[in-house]
Amino acid sequence: MNLQLTLAARYLWGRKLRTFLTTLAIVIGVMVIMGTGIYLPTFMDAFQKSMLSASGQTDVMITHKTGEAFSTSVLNRVKTMGGIRVIAGAIDRAINLPPNFYGRDVDLAGISIVGIDPNLAPQLRDYTITQGRFLRQGDGNVAVISQRLADTLKLKLGDALKVPTTEGVVKLTIVGIMPSRALIGNEQVLVTLSQAQKLLDMPNRINVIEANLVTTDKAQVEAIVQQIKNELGANYTLGGLTSGSEFLGAIQMAQVMFGMFGFFALLSARAAQRSSA
Length: 277
Description:
Helix content is 45%, strand content 25%. The chain contains 8 helices and 12 strands. β7 (160-165) and β8 (168-178) form a beta hairpin.
């Protein structure tokens, strides 16, 4: 054994550059693989939320088949199921505006009041705030709007936005402004879920449940969706990011690519060491 160690030591010592490059290649490869493994889950989570935000979807969206609101107890039933990473209830209600509500020079037929959970919503979608801040738990008559809506109504941070509600016309102070949406539809006025329930006279009611799952594997996603369908029955409709969509395919492809990155980095380092020896 001592003879073998002695020969190995002499061999390595006699080829200092090759030994150094080989060791360096292994160290770099291992560091890249370990580093990738550490930041990859966080990176993929941010990537997935960005993709879902761009598509205007979450993994699963649950609504009543009639489009009406339903009790928050339905949310509690789904919460207990496995395979769900984050889930939250919300209110998304389109509001038709009276003629000239914001003046004759404003062409705006309607808006959507969207009530969300300020703590959970950012885990479901990517809410980028360019000015001001996002909603906070306990906020009252405040709102976050898009830059397009702000430009249309000539409003800025701190101004009051008038919205028609069941309590009459309510003024919401603009505390945050987001980039303009690429999607077609009414401009959204984001408020807290509790405030939306108050403004729309929907106590303890929601009309949409959104969830992101712990996996993007096609078979597992379908199994989780089927479990939710079995629990809620035929009165509820499940939509969202289906297993065959282009967005889900992009997410799955990115996971494979980033998973292979560390392996290729190790091979590249080794190849570079050989060419330098």
